[in-house]
Q: What sequence folds into this?
């Protein structure tokens, strides 16, 4: 099987993807994987993405094609993709292939995981080799932070995995972009929220499609 025909189970339709300033440095296209085996907290802010069934299954080549389509039609210069969940490492092979493919387009890759960086090195070295930024650790509602860059709670850590991002550059990007949420109204009337908000600010979760970066 070609690496491009490997399938990834997403928590949302591929047609919904769009760039935001809320999911890491620069304009980035966020993805949410479907399924989380870690179940680290009873206060997970992405409960819709916990079950390993359901969702939308697409091949890596389909996803890369959708990314290229967004880039061609976006008024913004897209810097990279961000993979959230669910737990992306539950589908580590597919995410690795996807990251490798988008890097070949010149895009950067940002991985959120409920695992620690040590655990990721032990279990998912191939994926880390294709990753520019890692946000590790689970979301702890007791340590929610309004100021921690692109993370929900201050126990989580942002790691630059290579030479693409320097710490000072990331700090400057976060100062420019701030902690924000992006709300998108789709042509069919559905709306989605992505980015970092106070947990208390999310209401009507069951009736809305909410993509939340806090984890
Ligand atoms: S916070 Fe992340 S790792 Fe924890 S249960 Fe939710 S999706 Fe899974």
A:
């Amino acid at each position: 099987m070609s690496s491009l025909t490997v399938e990834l189970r997403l928590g949302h339709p591929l047609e919904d993807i769009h760039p935001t300033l809320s999911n890491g440095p620069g304009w980035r296209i966020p993805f949410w994987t479907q399924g989380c085996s870690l179940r680290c907290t009873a206060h997970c802010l992405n409960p819709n993405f916990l079950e390993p069934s359901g969702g939308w299954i697409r091949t890596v080549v389909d996803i890369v094609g959708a990314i290229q389509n967004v880039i061609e039609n976006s008024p913004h210069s897209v810097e990279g993709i961000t993979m959230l969940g669910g737990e992306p490492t539950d589908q580590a092979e597919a995410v690795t292939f996807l990251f490798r493919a988008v890097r070949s387009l010149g895009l950067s890759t940002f991985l959120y995981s409920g695992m620690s960086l040590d655990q990721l090195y032990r279990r998912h070295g191939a994926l880390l080799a294709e990753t520019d930024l890692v946000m590790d650790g689970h979301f702890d509602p007791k340590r929610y932070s309004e100021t921690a860059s692109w993370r929900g709670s201050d126990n989580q850590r942002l790691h630059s995995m290579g030479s693409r991002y320097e710490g000072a550059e990331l700090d400057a990007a976060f100062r420019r972009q701030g902690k924000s949420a992006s709300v998108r109204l789709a042509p069919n009337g559905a709306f989605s929220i992505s980015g970092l908000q106070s947990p208390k600010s999310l209401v009507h979760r069951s009736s809305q499609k909410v993509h939340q970066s806090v984890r």
Notes: The two ends are 33 Å apart (CA to CA). The pocket of iron/sulfur cluster is lined by residues 36, 38-41, 44, 46, 85-87, 114, 138-139, 215 (CB under 6 Å).
